[in-house]
Amino acid sequence: MANFFAGVQGVLTILLMISGGWILGRKNWFPGDTITVMSRLVLQISIPAMMLSSVISTFTREDIIRMGPALLLPLISISFLYCLGAALARVLRVPAGRRGVFRANIAFSNTVFVGVPVNVALFGEQAAPYVTLYYLVNTVLFWTFGVYFIRRDNEAQRVPVFSLKSLQQIFSPSIICFGIALFLVLYEINLPVFILGSLKYIAALTTPLAMLVIGVGLDLSALRRVNRQIVTVLFARFILAPALIFFLLTTMELPSLMKKVFLVTAGMPVMTQITLIAKAYGADHENAGITATVTTAVSLVAIPVYMILFGDL
To answer: What CA–CA distance (Å, rounded) separates 167 from 184?
Structure first.
């Protein structure tokens, strides 16, 4: 019960910060490219700093070695959901030019920009490395197969699954810093106190900045444009994905915190990068954008439900 009330406090904290961003956004507090700069600061500076500081501060060499098999859980879950998305696209008669985006929306969750700050707000900074495990698999599969089939939505696109650009996107600052942190822990290399302290201060920017940006970009009018495809994505993202992870968790002995983080991360909104990739390659970016907004709004209701269901794992 104590864990439940702690989770409720974390959810209320998230809602308050997002609400603050939404109100400030409606009052035009963020002119020009302010939000773009804030997003870049979170993705390229504060989250990578959190990866370094949290892994170094939280885990030992033995912990790192034990975490390896856990990568199978998101790998199996995301792969299953992606294949299911392909089947559902045919059942629902999704037009050929929209199927890549539809599959991606079904399978890939927003593990970094939403997943990291939400999990940190709910469970503390020690949750960040576990989110990164999920993020690693999510990112590799998205920037290979996910992007490949989104580009295939445009009949003019004939591209390889693997490309230099996809590799560059996989090795993002967060993944690179996570790898550096693993190396330091595995070889028991200690950073100077002043560097570790600086990283922790920078990492503390992550949750408030990310929540403000989410609030500013939240367009609740998108809820009026929900269609059958979006309803299917909502079911997959917020019910099927966590349920699948929950089933897979019964097959492995894992730390309680890792279980909670994987369950919450599996049920995050769709990746915002899906909209960007769809727009860049002439795919169904409009529907992708609406889906991203709707799933982000619905996640504000889903997160408290997760805490009720999984808070005492």
So the answer is: 23
| CATH code of the domain containing 67 | 1.20.1530
Of 207, 190, 70, nearest in space to 130 by CA: 70
CA gap 132, 120 in Å, rounded: 12
Range from 37-41, 100-104, 106-110, 282-286 carrying the lowest mean pLDDT:
282-286
Which range marks the domain in which residue 240 is found?
A: 2-310
Neighbours of 206 (CB within 10 A): 26
**If you ran DSSP here, which 8-state letter would residue 189 be given?**
P
Please give, one letter per residue, the 3-state secondary structure of 34-66.
Answer: HHHHHHHHHHHHHHHHHHHHHHHHHCCHHHHHH
Contact yes or no for 229/94 (Cβ under 8 A): yes
- Cα(76)–Cα(245) distance, rounded to whole angstroms? 9
How many domains would you assign to the chain? 1
Q: How far apart are CA 18 and CA 218, in angstroms?
A: 9
User: Rounded CA gap, 30 and 25, in Å?
Assistant: 7
| 265-313 pLDDT, tens digit each | 999 999 888 888 887 787 788 888 889 889 988 888 888 888 777 766 6
Whole-prediction pTM value? 0.85
158 phi and psi angles, rounded to 5 deg? -130, 100
Residues 6+ apart with CB under 8 A from 50: 116, 120, 125, 128, 199, 202, 203, 206
What is the Cα–Cα distance from 207 to 213, expressed in whole angstroms?
Answer: 10
Model confidence at 5, in pLDDT bands (50, 70, 90)? low
What is the rounded CA–CA span in Å between residue 181 and residue 58? Answer: 11
What is the CB neighbour count within 10 angstroms for residue 102? 28
